[in-house]
């Protein structure tokens, strides 16, 4: 159902307001009108519920999921290389990547209020570009209700697999918004060659870069420096993201602060899934320097992990716990990282409850934003692009 106005909601827990929608965008947020509430096909009664912008999942892998199939036990070696090998051995028998699996995950995103996502999609010698085709078909099945930005991702390495750079170039030429990288030192063992190859494609095709970096300590820091140098040299400020980047929280403070200043200069952003066993990020110092931080689910029910339900409020809660957030301001900031503050990760200039923003809203029965974060109540209503797409936990598409 297309919506023209959502009456009587509390944006970010503030005063009651009406959100006026013009097509797929918010035209105005104004004080609540005394007009009779109710649903007339275009007007939705918000019943005084808390309103948030649609959530943004800044780091997903929707092509990998076996969601909708019988339970798949976790197996293989619990290392990055072990997970890669296990996935390569088992994805074929499971029929991965699959349109049904990707569609199921995107439906869970909608159920929980996520209306936009950046998803890494495997591009390798085994599947070629088929994963990208699968994800695009899943997006079409849902009539574009989830805005999906694709990162062509070399999960099996780059330089150690001759031909992968050509596939990444082809993916960029075919419309992928970004290309990815993976542990230039730890996986390829040739960080200079991997990064030179990736940055050359990004410059030639005008796409972004989003590089998975699991390597720890000084090995990770060394690769941070290589990425910073190449970003500045290529003029790609604002178009490069480091995903995971566990080393940042492990470094001594003087070294960490020096790197943060350089990240800010290079306009490099950060995507994290806030794993509980990792070192906290210096997120306040990052925010003070204007370094963008996005939260994501990573993979969901796939051959890397049996966990995940697509709920970005749950990810924001994990981030808050990992970083010792307690105050209302910090708890609200964690939710903003999963919504309004994540707009650059899906190439949106504005993603909020404000005039000109996409008409993406989530209504929850909560007293305020910290209450919503801590309790994670069911999403009472999800509006994406001006359409009601989910109600009381049921996806309507």
From TrEMBL:
Q: Name one GO molecular function term.
A: hydrolase activity, acting on carbon-nitrogen (but not peptide) bonds, in cyclic amidines
Any keyword Cell inner membrane?
no
The EC code for this enzyme is 3.5.4.42
Broad enzyme group: hydrolase
Which Gene3D superfamilies has this protein been placed in? Answer: Metal-dependent hydrolases (3.20.20.140), Urease, subunit C, domain 1 (2.30.40.10)
Q: Which UniProt keywords apply?
A: Hydrolase
User: Domain Amidohydrolase: where?
Assistant: 104-390
Protein name in UniProt: N-isopropylammelide isopropylaminohydrolase
Q: Which organism is it from?
A: Actinomadura verrucosospora
